[in-house]
Amino acid sequence: MAQLYTKTKLYLEANSKTWDDTKVSLQDNSDGNGDFISSWSYDIAQPTAEQLASYESAATTAEALQTVLNNRANDYPSIADQLDKIYHSGIDEWKKVIKATKDKYPKWVK
């Protein structure tokens, strides 16, 4: 199940708004009821549970893509090491190193 943050962010973007911590707050009271929007001061209506639920699939996809991008960022060699690889081994060898990470963490997993 996608995070409330992601679904709320997608709702805002669909309404030509951007996330602003001064206009929206999410909260979890640790009472087993999960996260909820605790404050909302945008000039559009606060989304209903049904509206947020409609973003479930898109939010799940966005979160999966973000996980892939984070994994890749953590796995890639530092820029200094990449430049060193290019200098000593050439572009083709550098591409092999990058491709190994891209193959390890493909963007579009089914």
- Straight-line distance between termini: 16 Å
- Provide the helix percentage: 55-70%
Task: Assign the CATH class of the domain at 1-56.
Answer: Alpha Beta
Strand content: 5-15%
Described by the principal axes of the CA atoms, the overall outline is elongated
Reading the helices and strands in chain order gives HEEHHHH
Give the helix tally.
5
Q: Kindly report the average pLDDT value.
A: 96
State the strand order across the main sheet.
1-2
Q: Biggest sheet: strands, sense, closure?
A: 2 strands, antiparallel
Low confidence ranges: none
Brief overview, please?
The protein is mostly helical.
Characterization of the model:
The chain has a domain at about 1-55: Phenylalanyl-tRNA Synthetase, Chain B, domain 1 (2-Layer Sandwich), CATH 3.30.56. It contains five helices and two strands. It has helices spanning about 5-15, 50-55, 55-75, 80-90, 90-105, and strands at about 25-30, 35-40. Strands 1-2 form a two-stranded antiparallel sheet. Strand 1 (about 25-30) and strand 2 form a beta hairpin. Helix 4 crosses helix 5. The mean pLDDT is about 95.
Architecture blueprint of SSEs:
Elements: H1 4-14, E1 24-28, E2 35-40, H2 49-53, H3 56-75, H4 79-89, H5 91-104
Helix pairs in contact: 4-5
Please give a handful of descriptors for the protein shown.
single chain, 110 residues, mainly alpha, Phenylalanyl-tRNA Synthetase, Chain B, domain 1, two-stranded antiparallel sheet, 5 helices, 2 strands
